[in-house]
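Run (rape) hypothetical protein through structure prediction, thanks.
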Amino acid sequence: MVNYGAKLLVLWHPYSDLCMRNKIWYAKICLESRCNGLEVWGKVECVDMLTFPVETYESFCCLTASD
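Sure, done. The structure for (rape) hypothetical protein is below.
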């Protein structure tokens, strides 16, 4: 999960099939606070697949911080 311009970006592998190693699915979700902050609702804005020109890739972790 990544903070993407005040939205939540979720990335995942489709499955472990070797022929799909160059693809990652993602969903961009807009979050909204409701009921005086007691609930968080999300609306999926888009879902798509990223394709890389190489057969395999190496993923890495990232961290974002704000004040």
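The chain has a mean pLDDT of 77.
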